[in-house]
Design goal:
Blueprint (H helix, E strand, L loop, with lengths): L20 H11 L7 H14 L3 E7 L3 E9 L18 E3 L5 H7 L3 E3 L6 H4 L2 H5 L4 E8 L6 E9 L6 H27 L1
Length: 191
């Protein structure tokens, strides 16, 4: 059998396995999260961007097929059009195999990528070429009832960033705050 070289334009999709996807999707439906923008989460994303000095911040919920940014702030968007510029920038829905939040959900721990190109597993992700993401910082949103990671809060930049220990502490603290304020409050309201 002749050797066929790998296509250099082919992407290796290294999306983590997700056995909790169906249960997570059911829990998100139960909480009424993950299908529509939430103004409080847009406000949270704006504050997260301010605190981390990042141009883009999000509150992201992951189901078995896709990711939904229920809270989103993109500094490059035209404020007259709302938090997301539909003609460019970051949109509310992204395939599950794009980005880094699915890795945070799978591992249930924060992820710091100061320069995604330094990590072969992450450098080949579609968001690098399609959106220009060069740096990522994210932490999981753990459901206080089920213990499942429902999604993430994250910030990205199109330039490498030295997030450092302070960035890691900040993202973890803000994720814990959101879990308590939003997820805990929604669960009490649903129950």
């Amino acid at each position: 059998m002749p050797f066929t070289p790998l296509d250099p334009t082919a992407r290796l999709l290294l999306t983590p396995r997700d056995d909790e996807g169906p249960a997570r999707a059911a829990r998100l439906r139960e909480l009424g999260m993950g299908d529509e923008p939430v103004s409080e989460l847009d406000t949270f994303a704006r504050e997260l961007a301010r605190v981390t000095d990042a141009p883009v911040a999000a509150v992201n919920f992951v189901d078995e097929r896709r990711q939904y940014f229920a809270g989103l702030y993109d500094a490059s968007a035209d404020p007259a059009r709302g938090p997301v510029d539909p003609d460019g920038g970051f949109g509310r829905v992204m395939p599950r195999d794009h980005g880094y939040c699915v890795h945070v959900v799978a591992r249930r721990s924060a992820l710091v990528l100061e320069d995604v190109r330094d990590f072969a597993r992450f450098a080949v992700n579609a968001v690098v070429d399609e959106v220009g993401v060069a740096s990522y910082l994210g932490a999981p949103l753990i459901d206080p009832v089920t213990g499942m990671a429902l999604g993430t809060i994250c910030v990205v930049d199109q330039q490498p960033r030295a997030w450092g220990q302070q960035g890691l502490r900040t993202i973890k603290t803000m994720a814990a705050q959101l879990q308590q304020e939003i997820l805990g409050g929604r669960d009490r309201a649903a129950g």
